[in-house]
Amino acid sequence: MAKQFWTQERKQIVDLIDVTRTYGLDDDAVANLEAGRPAFWSTCGNSNDFDGLLFAAINRYASIEAGQEEYAGIFARRGMDPTDEIHLDYLIPLNTAAVTMLMLAYQSVGTWRTPEELAKRATSRGWPSFPARGRLAPVEAPALVAAE
């Protein structure tokens, strides 16, 4: 039996595209939502090439760290670092697993965002509410190093 194309998750992504005016590769976000993997959208817009690439890679791998790793060289050649906080600020987590992953990514650069604050990025744009805390998908925590 063929898989249904127009799922609830796809409709919600299309609605989010209309609100954020950010067009991207929605297939990876939809697949991640359906599988319970971290799924993101972005506010970076089409004119922000580097963050658009990073956003697409993060959804492709369902991993912020893997997306950052893929584009580290491209960012470095332009004097940028894909792990910088500014790039995380564009991400909109669409489920609890994404909230957890994004919270850990902020912690790895030495800043803090609450799960509720991160979940609000989506719900304030009309995304259906989801628990910001609770039964979280397993996410590998980055190794934190104490400041000297």
From TrEMBL:
Full protein name: Uncharacterized protein
Species whose genome carries this gene: Devosia honganensis
